[in-house]
Amino acid sequence: MTIDTARLVAMFAAIANAMSADRDRLCALDGVIGDADHGIAMELGFSAARDAVAALDTAAADPTALLNTAAKSFLNAVGASSGPLYATALMRGAAAVKGKTTLDDAETVALFQAMAKGIQDRGKAEPGEKTMIDAWAPAAQAAGEALASGKGLAASLEAAAQAAKAGAEATKAMIATKGRASRLGERSLGHMDPGAASAVTVIEAMRVALTS
Ligand code: ADP
Ligand code: MG
User: Fold this and answer.
1) 3-state helix, strand, coil in the chain (%, to 5)
2) Mean pLDDT, rounded, for 30-59
3) Average model confidence (pLDDT) for the chain?
4) What is the pLDDT of residue 59?
5) Best mutation site among 19, 43, 81 for ligand 1, i.e. most ligand atoms within 8 A of its Cβ?
6) Architecture of the structural domain at 5-211
7) Cα-to-centroid distance, 150 and ligand 1 (Å)
8) Which neighbouring-strand residues pair with 3?
């Protein structure tokens, strides 16, 4: 599988679509343990990223330039805490593929892992704190392990999507200690973290867009 800039443009369109479709569910999840804006933030951010990368000349822009454009537009569009978290993810992704014009399987997995690491570095959340990291970190690990065991991009991202889903599910049993939901303490128990839920949707949209 070779990923070029046109494929990345299509990936942002797919994520934006998925966020629009998932917006109300994500707002409802955020309404339970946060301020009910997460679906709006994610839709706004990825719609802005989609529009910004669609306006680029894909013949001239390399993956790094494209991902940096997406990062900047995401950050400008989103006032919620997911703004800097995903902007950092995209900027780290951009840095991870610097100098490449197209991405092979290993480079695409490296981009994916750099996104997860960016969110972790920016938000300083550890697994178990009931954040989007509880979906992103196991997903990045699963993708890396699948690739290392000789699997291709499709199987690696399939493993990532499954791990993200299990990770998001596991946040129901966690008490939030980072972000807005941490104010609820034990009352955050029993509810899925909205950022982990949206991470599943982002990762699944990436998987489909990059491997079909
Ligand atoms: P806000 O809390 O500012 O309204 P959003 O509603 O867009 O922002 O996003 C909330 C989500 O952000 C949470 O569900 C959680 O997954 C994630 N989050 C919050 N703080 C952190 C952090 N420090 N690290 C990682 N993710 C975080
Ligand atoms: Mg919110």
Assistant:
1) 75, 0, 25
2) 97
3) 97
4) 87
5) 81
6) Alpha Horseshoe (1.25)
7) 34
8) 103
